[in-house]
Amino acid sequence: MESKGLSRNNRENKAKPKRKEIIEKRKAMDALIKVASAEKDYLSAFPAFRHYQISGLSAFLESGRGDKLSSPVKQFIQNLLKANMEGPYGSEWPAEEKVKRREMVAPEAHYVFVRNTSNASSGEFLTTSECEKTSASCVEERGPIVGFVHFRFVIEEELPVLYVYELQLEPHVQGKGLGKFLMQLIELIACKNHMGAVVLTVQKANSAAMNFYLCKMRYVTSTISPSRVDPLIGIEKSYEILCKTFSNEAKAILEEPLELVHSV
Ligand SMILES: CC(C)(COP(=O)(O)OP(=O)(O)OC[C@H]1O[C@@H](n2cnc3c(N)ncnc32)[C@H](O)[C@@H]1OP(=O)(O)O)[C@@H](O)C(=O)NCCC(=O)NCCS
């Protein structure tokens, strides 16, 4: 017999929390989400993450919110999503694109934008007119936006988590460490705001992103991912839910380590 069942039974055998305790816990989680979501600039606590510089790329990071996006920024996000995600989503893309357009502008959508402040070849700062010549995505004077993370604070499986809705970089700035840098920032933001985990969804067809999260960022397939809820359902679904946990409670809920499970 499988011990996964056993570990679930153990959990079920524990004394059930009283209704009052459940309500108190829920209130505490709602308060955490409210406080976390009220922050205007998530970078203010991590000034070292305002700039990213490697040979050939100088970038500046800034915060944003879904209901405060300018029209050119919305257009940029839509264009980049289409360019990067139409392939992995395949026939699901037209429906998914509509969902993403709605999600993009929600007040609970928090952003970190990456602006390219350098001429990639020389490392010098670009003027506005140079930006316009080099990138159609140059929407403001501070340099063109070349990528972004969209994240939210939500309750998942009775646990407050930071959910990464999107992590998108223009192709010419991919593979330069920016994705890792942004995910490290996201994990710091999650910890600072007392979230139990960072959670995200990846299309299985997006093998580069799967590899990035699983191999490089050390995320694991969550117990709430279709393939772990039920392998048969998992085969039908085109995505996996990955997570990185920061507390034992989160680990028990979102990871439920299979190595502790043994046969009897
Ligand atoms: C996936 C993505 C966010 C990764 O960001 P990135 O800046 O390109 O990745 P990084 O340069 O930070 O790479 C970090 C590590 O992952 C590795 N890596 C990145 N992309 C990889 C790939 N396609 N295949 C294998 N390894 C990869 C790098 O080698 C690096 O490893 P190292 O630290 O040992 O050198 C970025 O490529 C992207 O925007 N892709 C298109 C959109 C997308 O798929 N988003 C994810 C949707 S869920």
Structural account:
The protein has 264 residues and is an alpha+beta fold. The chain has one domain (3-260): Aminopeptidase. It is 42% helix and 22% strand. The chain has helices at 3-13, 19-38, 71-89, 93-104, 128-134, 178-192, 207-216, 226-229, 231-236, 248-255; strands at residues 51-54, 57-65, 110-116, 145-156, 159-169, 197-203, 220-221, 239-245. The longest helix has 20 residues, at 19-38. It is globular, with a radius of gyration of 20 Å. The chain starts with a helix and ends in a 9-residue tail after the last helix. Residues 1-10, 120-139 and 260-264 have low confidence and may be disordered.
Q: Topology of this protein?
A:
Layout: H1 3-13, H2 19-38, E1 51-54, E2 57-65, H3 71-89, H4 93-104, E3 110-116, H5 128-134, E4 145-156, E5 159-169, H6 178-192, E6 197-203, H7 207-216, E7 220-221, H8 226-229, H9 231-236, E8 239-245, H10 248-255
Parallel strand pairs: 5-6
Antiparallel strand pairs: 1-2, 2-3, 3-4, 4-5, 6-8, 7-8
The chain binds coenzyme A.
Keywords: Acyltransferase, Cytoplasm, Nucleus, Transferase
Catalytic activity: N-terminal L-seryl-[histone H4] + acetyl-CoA = N-terminal N(alpha)-acetyl-L-seryl-[histone H4] + CoA + H(+); N-terminal L-seryl-[histone H2A] + acetyl-CoA = N-terminal N(alpha)-acetyl-L-seryl-[histone H2A] + CoA + H(+)
Region (Disordered): 1-21
